[in-house]
Each structure stands twice: as C-alpha cells, then as structure tokens.
C-alpha cells in the first residue's frame, strides 16, 4: 500500500484511451481506471467511484476525461478543484480536441510535468489558501455520487446484464402471480360447485325422508 498522501495518480484520456498519466506511487491503478473509463457516458459528467479505500474522481468534458485517484480521507473538494485546474491547463495548451489524435505523442506526454507539479501542490493542505478554498467549495457539485465498483471488478458482471437479470426476474414474478390468481379463481369455482352439489344432495335426502315418514 502506498505511503503517499493526497493525490496519488492522474490520467487524461480520450475515447477510453490514455493520453497522458502520472503516478506518484508504485501502485498500479490501470485495471480500475480501465473499468471506469469504459463506463463513462459520452456526455459531460462528474463522478466519484470508491474502491479499496481510494476514491476515483473524474470530470468528463468535450470527450476528454480527467481522472485522479486519492485517499478516501482526502475528501472530494480538493481533488475536484485539482481536476478543474488540470482541465483548464490542458484545454489551454490543446484547445482543439480533434487535433489530439494527430499531435506527436511526445507533445501530449510532456503534459505529465504539469500533472506532477499540480499533484504535489494540491496534495498539500490548501486550507491556508483562501482563494483555493473558495474555488474548491464552488466546484463541489450536487450531482457527484459515490459508487462502489468492487463487486463489478470481482465478479466481472456487466451492469447491463445485471439489469437484464432483474427484468427477467420481475417478468417471471409477474407471470407467477398471474398464474396463481387464475388457479385461485378456478379452485374457488370448483369449491362452489361442490358445495352446491352437496346442498342439493342434502335437500334430496331430506325430501325423501319427509315423504317416507309423513306421506
């Protein structure tokens, strides 16, 4: 486990492929990051995932994903302020997203120096910096959710397949309830017929006894 505090790893990706990354630790995050990248929707979004006592925060904008890994106890305010700063500097250096595919690889990889510098800066306690603190509070958004992907990684179940399984179970349950209702109705009518036959038989027997005794 890494002894590094604060922001541990940062990656910039596009079309689920890594453009540039920087790892401040010896821990490998590629498997979890790959899983997250595959699940990020194409529209602009912000989200946090929890896995193995780390939080994976990302901002997706204009098809580019900015993702960082930090300890859970580091919170979300500073990591998202950091991601906004990285996003701003990245788009300032590479304003045309479409040209990213044609740029020399070393040109984009040089951005790792900025990742390293900003990770070090934001991993410090920023409470002494009022401007940074206000920026961090503003960047806190209500739509940031924490999802635990530990079971997804361990079991390898796709979310869509889990939804299909749930829908199939709901359909089966509805069909079972429908069959049960029909069976109950059929048994009720059968009981009514038996009761009517029993009453009719009793009436006939009583009538015969009456005729034999009093007529």
From TrEMBL:
Residues 11-115 form the Longin domain. Pfam families: Longin, Synaptobrevin. It is a single-pass type IV membrane protein. Its main location: membrane. GO terms for cellular component: cytoplasm; endomembrane system; membrane. Keywords: Coiled coil, Membrane, Protein transport, Transmembrane, Transmembrane helix, Transport. Residues 130-190 form the V-SNARE coiled-coil homology domain. PROSITE patterns: LONGIN, V_SNARE. GO terms for biological process: protein transport; vesicle-mediated transport. It is found in: Endomembrane system. The chain crosses the membrane at residues 194-213. Belongs to the synaptobrevin family. This is Synaptobrevin homolog YKT6.
């Amino acid at each position: 486990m890494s002894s590094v505090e604060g922001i541990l790893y940062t990656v910039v990706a596009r079309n689920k492929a890594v453009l540039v990354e920087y790892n401040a630790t010896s821990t490998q995050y590629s498997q979890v990051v790959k899983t997250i990248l595959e699940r990020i929707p194409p529209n602009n979004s912000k989200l946090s995932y929890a896995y193995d006592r780390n939080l994976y925060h990302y901002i997706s904008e204009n098809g580019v994903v900015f993702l960082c890994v930090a300890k859970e106890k580091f919170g979300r305010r500073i990591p998202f302020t950091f991601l906004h700063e990285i996003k701003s500097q990245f788009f300032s250096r590479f304003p045309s997203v479409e040209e990213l595919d044609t740029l020399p690889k070393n040109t984009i990889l040089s951005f790792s120096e900025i990742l390293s510098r900003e990770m070090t800066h934001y991993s410090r306690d920023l409470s002494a910096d009022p401007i940074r603190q206000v920026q961090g509070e503003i960047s806190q958004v209500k739509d940031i959710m924490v999802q635990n992907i530990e079971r997804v990684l361990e079991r390898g179940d796709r979310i869509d397949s889990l939804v299909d399984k749930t829908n199939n179970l709901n359909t089966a349950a509805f069909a079972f309830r429908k069959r049960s209702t029909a069976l109950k109705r059929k048994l009720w009518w059968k009981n009514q017929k038996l009761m009517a036959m029993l009453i009719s038989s009793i009436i006939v027997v009583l009538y015969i006894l009456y005729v034999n005794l009093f007529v």
